[in-house]
From TrEMBL:
CDD domains: DUF820-like. It comes from Catellatospora methionotrophica. This is Putative restriction endonuclease domain-containing protein. Pfam families: Uma2 (PF05685). Residues 18-173 form the Putative restriction endonuclease domain. It comes from the Bacteria.
Amino acid sequence: MIEEWSEVEQWTAELALRLLPETNGPTIEVFCGSVIVSPHANMDHQTIMREIVYRLHHAARGIDCWAYPESNLISGDDLFIPDFGVFRVSGSGKVAMNIADALLLGEIVSPGNRRKDIIDRPKQYAAAGVPWFMRVECRNRVPVLALHSLVDGEYRPVAAAAAGTRFVMREPFAFEIDPADLLDE
């Protein structure tokens, strides 16, 4: 396996999916030819991901879309793993999804990855033409949910709400929630 890798100059999504083992451990991504390894986030992050994916999945099925947590997402030679995504095609039996099939991608902001979750990822998703981006922030255990629409190559805010209020979106599908419901309390 090492011999096979040494023949290439840089990592690609295809190479990573072929050579690296599937794991429930750290997240392994490829960006601009480099491999990035990250540990799982804290339990609030995991709880928010579980709840948002479950609820988005039920809402998205109304328009024949599917929501998944932490999917391998191929964008050219890059391999991203967004915290959650809603796709126009089922991921059934697949190891990775193509970014062209993403309707909405989302990130749950982690303290150690703020720049990646707030600036870098949205830029990468926008450059790939993903129509919708959702971000969840949780400061002092107060979740805030925000939806952004792709307009002229950049994400523009469409809807936002903090815990104790109602987040409502009508596009790309109807979805409502009090962000407080994303935590176990």
